[in-house]
Amino acid sequence: MKIAILAPTIAPLTSVGGLGDVMQDLPKFLKDAGNEVITITFNHENKISSLPHEKKRTLGIKYQGTEIKFDVIETKHPFTGVKIVAFSNEEFNQLDTWDPIKYEVFADLVVDYLSEFDDIDCISGHDWPCGLAIAKCHEKLDIPTTITIHNEAFKGPIVEYKGHVMTFLELGIYFSDAFNTVSPTHAEEIKSIDFIKEQSKTKPFHGIINGIDLNSYDPIHIVDKMLKLTDGKLNPRMYGFVRGYSAEDAHVVKPKIKLSWFYNSKNLKNYIENWNNMDKSAISGTDVEVYGDLSGDIEIPLIGFVGRGTYQKGFSIMFEAFPEILEEYDIRIVMLSKGECDIEEGMKDLAESYSGKVISLIGYCPPLASLIFAGSDWTVIPSVWEPCGLVQMESMAYCTPVIAREVGGLKDTIIPLHYDPYNNPNFDVATGVLFKHYDKYGLKWGIEHAITWTFYKLKDICLFIRYKQTECPESPYDKQAPLSIMMKNCYHHTVKNLSWQNNDSVNKYKAIFGGSIYHHYK
């Protein structure tokens, strides 16, 4: 098939969040599966035009009576080699990535650009910014279309098209020939919404889990990845201990990374200072503000958080639960986020209130995310809702188990430690802890369950350990200790079940494209 993918953002060029990561990886693996793929986007902040590119032609479209000209530039993704077509206009390039005006214009640009092709089999739009474009492509080009819902909560503005007054996302769903969301559980969760329930009766609708690229997230390549994300300008080995590791030696390497970077915060702060002073015009990222400090010995557990600074990610219960957890247990917390002002203030206050126990990093810095996954003992994802989530997959790829709420894609991707390990000691398969209720008590239980059974109850684990005919662990990082076993589980689960290479999601996307073609022409 020849597939045109409409992408609001693409990692690592114009990306903040998981959507951009999927828009990097999905086209690559569709191409590897034998499809011809074009990714179409905007030249946000001139990030696409900073790559070697070719100007193919100029398109002129009218917006509210004014003609606006856009260069059509063509390049290849620097990591995947997939063809990228970007619309470039100096004024529009500088508008906010999510400005609705951009995507009203984008719809007409996509139609104009694709009207010269007669061999496109399917047009695939992603999230609300592409909804109006999908509607117009369906109506004006007579080409099968699909739309993928990455986050149903964000629908875009309400507009009128062909007599329908709907949000961008709803228009995309209504006019598409098939649609999907990004995990099976989330597909069931949003089927209760009347509009989606109605549309799912008339056309194919499925939940297709996202994935991660093993070549990018294998911890053996962490140094190369961090270098690549800084355009080769910051070598992490010049600041603290870090080296590639595997599932077999994660229990040895990860605590050393924790001690070097987080319990010796001077190394981390030096790295961030140089990141802030670096020219970032050719990479994705912002400056990072540092609040707080960490100190401690190697066996004090470190909880990491990486995510956008939005209500969805569970900040309200983190800000309630973390102070109580910090008072009751000897633990440390590192947070990396950027977003809403009140959330950033909450992160700052938490770090300043618990000196030596919390460090808050306010900014968007992809290489630091890798470092937090590698150095943390656990990561936490207490989302209100989570259509799929990539953070838990990235964390587990780095051999770090996850404390998460049992919702959406988190439920689909994490194998939970049993709530009663005395009677059901499933340490040999578990990759995290899941809790149900969105409140501070649920999150506190999740954290307590995680650290209790991997740090504080090592002697109580001996019944399980003896059954396995090994010695009782004396340290959380002993090879036979529960945390070390779960580290291995995390990596192998990610490889086998969560990677684009092995999780069969690319074939499911091909199937939904096929379903859209059948529905369009039947």
UniProtKB/TrEMBL annotation:
SUPFAM superfamilies associated with the record: UDP-Glycosyltransferase/glycogen phosphorylase
Stored InterPro entries: Glyco_trans_1 (IPR001296), Starch_synth_cat_dom (IPR013534)
Name by which UniProt lists this protein: Starch synthase
EC number annotated for this UniProt entry: 2.4.1.21
Domain Starch synthase catalytic per the UniProt entry, residue ranges: 2-194
Keywords (A to Z) from UniProt: Glycosyltransferase, Transferase
Stretches assigned to the Glycosyl transferase family domain: 301-450
Molecular function GO labels: alpha-1,4-glucan glucosyltransferase (ADP-glucose donor) activity
Superkingdom, taxonomy of origin: Archaea
